[in-house]
Amino acid sequence: MSPVSHSFRVLVASALLAACVAVGAPAQADPVVATPDVAAPSTPNTERCPYRSQPAAAVDSSEVPPAGQAAPAPLPVPDPTVGGERLSACGVVTAGSPNAIPRGITSAGWLVADAGSGAVLAAKDPHGRYRPASTIKTLLALVALDELDLDKVVIGTREDYGMEGDSAGIGPGGTYTVRQLLQGLLMVSGNDCANALARELGGYDVAVGKMNEMAHDLGAEDTRAASPSGLDAPGMSTSPYDLALVFRAALKNSTFRELVSNVSAPFPGYPKLADVPGDKDHPGYLMQTQNRLLLDQYPGTIGGKTGYTDDARKTFVGAVERDGRSLIVVQMYGLNEAGDSYWDQAKALLDLGFATGAQASVGTLVSGPAGAGASTSPSASAGADRSGNLAYPSSPDGPGGSDWTDRLLFGGIGVLVVIGLVYAAIRVNRRSH
């Protein structure tokens, strides 16, 4: 059995110009363009903090709010910076030599940290706001591990079966334990598993609300989940720093470590579909991990979580252990390039981390919410609400091309001036790996 994908394409033509005026806050940036900076010619330049308060403009219709609802305002920007003042930088910060930063890193934001001590060893735009794609499934897994019985049996539904994007293969009437759903969630990024787990946690909005509560409890103040699976939806954001926080917390759970370390695992089948003439029972199959660090046997790999949507681009969070030292790597808003795969980039960043002294640090992964003395930037004060009410279910858009859909952009302190409204060929098919 192969992962299930659902797609369709809709084309709409129009042309107008959109712009936004921001007061007291950085303006929404154009999509990342590969420009030189200290790290490498292929690394996007983030020195001017284009993603300080929110991600880049969406490229498809995935973040259009339901009719009659406004998109959530960006989350506040904490002041002082969570984890230390050096992490407020939007360019590269490193505890070692800047000349040691690997070339060819395509991610706009990345981070390498010591999972044991919490020391951040090197980073680029560590608190920049990016879309997580399926890396947010680590947060859903943490909530499920905290609240659900691993041996509880869950019955697959037609809604699970119909989820867009990657699928572990849930079918209506199939029976799955919570453990198996978590394995499918983390190994093959099953959006069907995310849907089933969210249902067991109380439903879509309740599950997203619990994910956001846990993010806050961990000190992940750049994070707002807007879907259980990581499919793009209004208000979704996280940062390299926050993904490292979440993954560090997850690594402390022995079940999570076991699940992400598996290269393969069985997944149950399901009965034939009564409404499909001639259908037969669907047998179980052996899932294979999407994590090439495991498949390539990169020394000491513990495990990780991949992600991709058209808006998020490639994302990854993972951990490697050598000689008693565990490192976490995070990559966000990146790309594969010819001769420079995302996995090669991950390995280069991890090699950088292991070559950096154990006592070095440019900041710290915190162990809880920001202190009572911390304030928030007025540039996004209206975005503090993390409730599940901000989580709009993603409509099943399908695949698209390379056209850009302009968005209403958010200005500071709630001032939004729209000079034009635009839609160019709406692309569909948001994939979440």
From TrEMBL:
UniProt KW Transmembrane keyword: yes
Region (Disordered): 38-72, 369-399
Molecular-function GO terms, alphabetical: carboxypeptidase activity
Highest taxon listed in the record's lineage: Bacteria
Signal sequence, start to end: 1-29
Transmembrane domains' residue ranges: 408-426
Swiss-Prot/TrEMBL keywords: Carboxypeptidase, Cell shape, Cell wall biogenesis/degradation, Hydrolase, Membrane, Peptidoglycan synthesis, Protease, Signal, Transmembrane, Transmembrane helix
Residue ranges, compositional bias (Low complexity): 369-384
InterPro entries the UniProt entry points to: Beta-lactam/transpept-like (IPR012338), Peptidase_S11 (IPR018044), Peptidase_S11_N (IPR001967)
Residue ranges of every copy of the Peptidase S11 D-alanyl-D-alanine carboxypeptidase A N-terminal domain listed in the record: 104-332
Presence of the UniProt keyword Signal in the record: yes
Similarity section: Belongs to the peptidase S11 family.
Full protein name: D-alanyl-D-alanine carboxypeptidase (Penicillin-binding protein 5/6)
Lineage of source species: Bacteria, Bacillati, Actinomycetota, Actinomycetes, Mycobacteriales
